[in-house]
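User: I'll paste a sequence; please echo it back and then give the predicted structure.

Assistant: Echoing your sequence first, then the prediction.
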Amino acid sequence: MFAAMCEHHGMKMADLYNISIRDTDKAPVEKLLTDQEKSVFAGHFPFGLHEWLSRPSCYMAIVRKPLDRIISLYYYSIQFREITLKAREEWTSFQALFDNRIVPDFYVDFLPWIQGEQTQTKFLRCLSAELDNGMVRRFSGFGLNAKPCPKEALGEAKRNIERYYSLVGVQEQFQDTMDLVSIMFDVNLTEYHINKGVKKNDTEEKLTLKIRQRINEMNRLDNDLYQWVVNRFNKKLLNPGEPIIVPGGGRTDYGQMKLWHAIGSSPKRTGAMELSPANK
Protein backbone atom coordinates (compact mmCIF):
# COMPACT_ATOMS: atom_id res chain seq x y z
CA MET A 1 0.00 0.00 0.00
CA PHE A 2 2.92 2.32 0.79
CA ALA A 3 4.38 1.77 -2.68
CA ALA A 4 0.98 2.21 -4.35
CA MET A 5 0.38 5.50 -2.54
CA CYS A 6 3.83 6.70 -3.57
CA GLU A 7 2.68 6.81 -7.19
CA HIS A 8 0.36 9.66 -6.28
CA HIS A 9 2.28 11.36 -3.47
CA GLY A 10 5.98 10.62 -4.02
CA MET A 11 8.18 12.64 -1.66
CA LYS A 12 5.02 14.01 -0.04
CA MET A 13 4.83 10.70 1.82
CA ALA A 14 5.99 10.94 5.44
CA ASP A 15 7.79 7.68 6.31
CA LEU A 16 7.36 7.09 10.06
CA TYR A 17 8.51 3.46 9.91
CA ASN A 18 12.06 4.42 10.88
CA ILE A 19 11.34 6.94 13.65
CA SER A 20 13.29 5.35 16.49
CA ILE A 21 12.53 5.32 20.21
CA ARG A 22 16.29 5.58 20.57
CA ASP A 23 16.16 9.13 19.23
CA THR A 24 16.50 11.37 22.27
CA ASP A 25 16.13 14.30 19.88
CA LYS A 26 12.46 14.57 18.81
CA ALA A 27 13.37 16.78 15.84
CA PRO A 28 12.90 14.04 13.16
CA VAL A 29 9.25 13.32 14.01
CA GLU A 30 8.48 16.99 14.71
CA LYS A 31 9.94 17.93 11.34
CA LEU A 32 7.79 15.36 9.55
CA LEU A 33 4.53 16.20 11.31
CA THR A 34 4.89 19.96 10.88
CA ASP A 35 5.93 19.73 7.22
CA GLN A 36 2.96 21.15 5.32
CA GLU A 37 4.22 19.51 2.13
CA LYS A 38 3.61 16.01 3.52
CA SER A 39 0.22 14.55 2.60
CA VAL A 40 0.38 10.93 3.86
CA PHE A 41 1.82 9.77 7.18
CA ALA A 42 2.62 6.05 7.13
CA GLY A 43 3.93 3.85 9.93
CA HIS A 44 3.20 1.42 12.78
CA PHE A 45 1.86 4.04 15.18
CA PRO A 46 -1.15 3.68 17.49
CA PHE A 47 -4.33 5.71 17.08
CA GLY A 48 -3.99 9.33 18.14
CA LEU A 49 -1.48 10.76 15.68
CA HIS A 50 -4.04 13.35 14.53
CA GLU A 51 -3.62 15.13 17.86
CA TRP A 52 -0.16 16.26 16.76
CA LEU A 53 -1.31 17.56 13.37
CA SER A 54 -2.41 21.13 12.85
CA ARG A 55 -4.77 20.24 9.99
CA PRO A 56 -7.64 17.82 9.32
CA SER A 57 -6.79 14.28 8.27
CA CYS A 58 -8.24 10.83 7.51
CA TYR A 59 -7.29 7.51 9.12
CA MET A 60 -6.78 4.35 7.06
CA ALA A 61 -5.36 1.00 8.15
CA ILE A 62 -5.04 -2.63 7.06
CA VAL A 63 -5.45 -5.64 9.39
CA ARG A 64 -4.20 -9.17 9.00
CA LYS A 65 -5.27 -12.50 10.48
CA PRO A 66 -3.59 -12.42 13.93
CA LEU A 67 -2.06 -15.90 13.69
CA ASP A 68 -0.50 -15.12 10.31
CA ARG A 69 0.71 -11.74 11.55
CA ILE A 70 2.67 -13.28 14.45
CA ILE A 71 4.00 -16.12 12.29
CA SER A 72 5.20 -13.53 9.79
CA LEU A 73 6.93 -11.62 12.59
CA TYR A 74 8.63 -14.82 13.74
CA TYR A 75 9.97 -15.70 10.30
CA TYR A 76 11.02 -12.08 9.77
CA SER A 77 13.01 -12.31 12.99
CA ILE A 78 14.76 -15.60 12.27
CA GLN A 79 16.04 -14.20 8.97
CA PHE A 80 18.60 -12.39 11.12
CA ARG A 81 19.80 -15.44 13.04
CA GLU A 82 23.17 -15.54 11.26
CA ILE A 83 23.67 -11.85 11.91
CA THR A 84 22.75 -12.17 15.57
CA LEU A 85 24.96 -15.22 16.09
CA LYS A 86 27.96 -13.38 14.65
CA ALA A 87 27.24 -10.23 16.63
CA ARG A 88 26.25 -11.90 19.90
CA GLU A 89 29.72 -11.53 21.41
CA GLU A 90 29.56 -7.78 20.81
CA TRP A 91 26.15 -7.46 22.51
CA THR A 92 27.50 -7.86 26.02
CA SER A 93 24.63 -5.90 27.54
CA PHE A 94 21.17 -4.56 26.86
CA GLN A 95 22.67 -1.10 26.41
CA ALA A 96 25.12 -2.37 23.79
CA LEU A 97 22.23 -3.63 21.67
CA PHE A 98 20.22 -0.50 22.30
CA ASP A 99 23.10 1.70 21.13
CA ASN A 100 23.66 -0.27 17.94
CA ARG A 101 21.56 1.67 15.43
CA ILE A 102 22.11 -0.96 12.75
CA VAL A 103 19.76 -3.22 14.69
CA PRO A 104 16.03 -2.40 14.28
CA ASP A 105 14.25 -1.25 17.44
CA PHE A 106 11.94 -4.24 17.74
CA TYR A 107 14.92 -6.54 18.42
CA VAL A 108 15.23 -4.90 21.83
CA ASP A 109 12.00 -6.67 22.81
CA PHE A 110 13.44 -10.03 21.76
CA LEU A 111 16.83 -9.69 23.42
CA PRO A 112 16.39 -12.80 25.68
CA TRP A 113 15.50 -14.88 22.62
CA ILE A 114 18.42 -13.48 20.61
CA GLN A 115 20.98 -14.01 23.37
CA GLY A 116 19.74 -17.43 24.42
CA GLU A 117 18.44 -20.56 22.71
CA GLN A 118 16.28 -19.35 19.83
CA THR A 119 13.31 -21.67 20.20
CA GLN A 120 9.69 -21.01 19.25
CA THR A 121 8.58 -21.21 22.87
CA LYS A 122 11.14 -18.69 24.07
CA PHE A 123 10.20 -16.33 21.24
CA LEU A 124 6.62 -16.19 22.55
CA ARG A 125 7.86 -15.67 26.11
CA CYS A 126 9.53 -12.39 25.16
CA LEU A 127 7.89 -9.37 26.73
CA SER A 128 6.91 -7.75 23.45
CA ALA A 129 3.60 -5.94 23.15
CA GLU A 130 3.60 -7.05 19.50
CA LEU A 131 2.81 -10.59 20.70
CA ASP A 132 -0.06 -9.48 22.93
CA ASN A 133 -2.98 -8.21 20.82
CA GLY A 134 -0.90 -5.72 18.86
CA MET A 135 -3.80 -4.63 16.62
CA VAL A 136 -6.20 -3.90 19.49
CA ARG A 137 -3.42 -1.98 21.19
CA ARG A 138 -2.99 0.23 18.13
CA PHE A 139 -6.63 0.90 17.31
CA SER A 140 -7.59 1.54 20.94
CA GLY A 141 -4.73 3.95 21.50
CA PHE A 142 -3.63 1.88 24.51
CA GLY A 143 -0.30 1.60 22.77
CA LEU A 144 2.51 -0.90 22.60
CA ASN A 145 3.90 -0.88 26.12
CA ALA A 146 4.95 -3.34 28.82
CA LYS A 147 1.48 -3.57 30.38
CA PRO A 148 -0.87 -6.45 29.40
CA CYS A 149 -3.54 -5.39 26.93
CA PRO A 150 -6.80 -4.89 28.93
CA LYS A 151 -10.06 -6.46 27.74
CA GLU A 152 -11.64 -2.99 27.69
CA ALA A 153 -9.29 -1.99 24.88
CA LEU A 154 -11.26 -4.15 22.43
CA GLY A 155 -14.40 -2.04 22.78
CA GLU A 156 -12.36 1.15 22.56
CA ALA A 157 -10.70 -0.12 19.38
CA LYS A 158 -14.08 -0.76 17.75
CA ARG A 159 -15.41 2.65 18.82
CA ASN A 160 -12.36 4.40 17.38
CA ILE A 161 -12.73 2.57 14.07
CA GLU A 162 -16.41 3.47 13.82
CA ARG A 163 -15.84 7.10 14.72
CA TYR A 164 -12.49 7.97 13.16
CA TYR A 165 -11.41 5.51 10.47
CA SER A 166 -12.45 6.12 6.88
CA LEU A 167 -11.36 2.60 5.99
CA VAL A 168 -9.87 -0.46 7.68
CA GLY A 169 -8.89 -2.87 4.94
CA VAL A 170 -8.06 -6.57 5.13
CA GLN A 171 -4.78 -8.03 3.87
CA GLU A 172 -6.48 -11.29 2.90
CA GLN A 173 -8.76 -9.18 0.68
CA PHE A 174 -6.07 -6.85 -0.54
CA GLN A 175 -7.39 -6.20 -4.04
CA ASP A 176 -10.80 -5.29 -2.62
CA THR A 177 -9.00 -3.02 -0.15
CA MET A 178 -7.13 -1.33 -3.01
CA ASP A 179 -10.38 -0.86 -4.90
CA LEU A 180 -12.07 0.76 -1.88
CA VAL A 181 -9.15 3.13 -1.34
CA SER A 182 -9.32 4.10 -5.00
CA ILE A 183 -13.05 4.82 -4.77
CA MET A 184 -13.04 6.64 -1.46
CA PHE A 185 -10.00 8.82 -2.12
CA ASP A 186 -10.37 9.20 -5.89
CA VAL A 187 -7.05 7.59 -6.84
CA ASN A 188 -6.11 4.75 -9.17
CA LEU A 189 -3.81 2.40 -7.27
CA THR A 190 -1.52 -0.21 -8.78
CA GLU A 191 -0.89 -3.37 -6.74
CA TYR A 192 2.70 -3.97 -5.65
CA HIS A 193 4.23 -6.89 -3.78
CA ILE A 194 6.88 -5.38 -1.52
CA ASN A 195 8.74 -7.29 1.24
CA LYS A 196 6.69 -10.38 0.46
CA GLY A 197 7.83 -13.35 2.54
CA VAL A 198 9.48 -16.31 0.87
CA LYS A 199 7.31 -19.42 0.79
CA LYS A 200 8.59 -21.93 3.32
CA ASN A 201 9.67 -25.35 2.03
CA ASP A 202 9.67 -28.70 3.80
CA THR A 203 13.26 -28.31 5.01
CA GLU A 204 12.59 -25.07 6.90
CA GLU A 205 11.38 -24.72 10.43
CA LYS A 206 7.64 -24.97 10.96
CA LEU A 207 5.70 -23.62 13.89
CA THR A 208 4.17 -26.49 15.85
CA LEU A 209 0.44 -26.86 16.43
CA LYS A 210 1.00 -26.14 20.13
CA ILE A 211 2.76 -22.86 19.30
CA ARG A 212 -0.01 -21.85 16.92
CA GLN A 213 -2.62 -22.54 19.59
CA ARG A 214 -0.59 -20.47 22.04
CA ILE A 215 -0.44 -17.55 19.59
CA ASN A 216 -4.22 -17.62 19.25
CA GLU A 217 -4.64 -17.73 23.03
CA MET A 218 -2.34 -14.72 23.43
CA ASN A 219 -4.28 -12.76 20.82
CA ARG A 220 -7.93 -13.46 21.62
CA LEU A 221 -8.80 -9.76 21.51
CA ASP A 222 -7.11 -9.39 18.12
CA ASN A 223 -9.01 -12.41 16.78
CA ASP A 224 -12.29 -10.82 17.87
CA LEU A 225 -11.34 -7.48 16.33
CA TYR A 226 -10.22 -9.12 13.09
CA GLN A 227 -13.53 -10.96 12.54
CA TRP A 228 -15.44 -7.77 13.38
CA VAL A 229 -13.36 -5.77 10.90
CA VAL A 230 -13.82 -8.39 8.15
CA ASN A 231 -17.62 -8.32 8.56
CA ARG A 232 -17.62 -4.52 8.57
CA PHE A 233 -15.32 -4.40 5.54
CA ASN A 234 -17.54 -6.70 3.48
CA LYS A 235 -20.51 -4.42 4.18
CA LYS A 236 -18.44 -1.41 3.19
CA LEU A 237 -17.71 -3.02 -0.18
CA LEU A 238 -21.40 -2.60 -0.95
CA ASN A 239 -21.58 0.95 0.40
CA PRO A 240 -18.15 2.67 0.60
CA GLY A 241 -19.47 5.97 1.94
CA GLU A 242 -17.44 9.15 2.35
CA PRO A 243 -14.07 9.60 4.11
CA ILE A 244 -14.25 10.65 7.77
CA ILE A 245 -12.50 13.97 8.37
CA VAL A 246 -10.71 14.12 11.73
CA PRO A 247 -9.78 17.60 13.03
CA GLY A 248 -6.13 18.18 13.97
CA GLY A 249 -5.26 18.66 17.62
CA GLY A 250 -2.25 20.91 17.25
CA ARG A 251 -0.30 19.31 20.12
CA THR A 252 3.41 20.08 20.31
CA ASP A 253 4.58 17.77 23.11
CA TYR A 254 6.21 15.30 20.72
CA GLY A 255 7.96 13.48 23.56
CA GLN A 256 4.62 12.03 24.65
CA MET A 257 3.76 10.59 21.24
CA LYS A 258 3.25 6.80 21.30
CA LEU A 259 5.22 5.68 18.28
CA TRP A 260 6.14 2.01 17.94
CA HIS A 261 9.62 0.65 17.46
CA ALA A 262 11.29 1.52 14.17
CA ILE A 263 11.58 -1.38 11.75
CA GLY A 264 14.61 0.15 10.08
CA SER A 265 15.26 2.14 6.93
CA SER A 266 14.27 0.56 3.64
CA PRO A 267 15.74 1.23 0.19
CA LYS A 268 12.44 -0.02 -1.28
CA ARG A 269 10.39 2.59 0.57
CA THR A 270 12.86 5.34 -0.19
CA GLY A 271 13.10 4.29 -3.83
CA ALA A 272 9.33 4.18 -4.22
CA MET A 273 9.10 7.77 -3.04
CA GLU A 274 12.01 9.07 -5.09
CA LEU A 275 11.00 7.34 -8.33
CA SER A 276 7.35 8.32 -8.12
CA PRO A 277 5.79 9.98 -11.18
CA ALA A 278 4.34 12.50 -8.71
CA ASN A 279 7.80 14.07 -8.39
CA LYS A 280 8.02 14.89 -12.10
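Residues 220-238 form the longest helix (19 residues). The chain has two domains: 1-57+245-280, 63-173+185-242.
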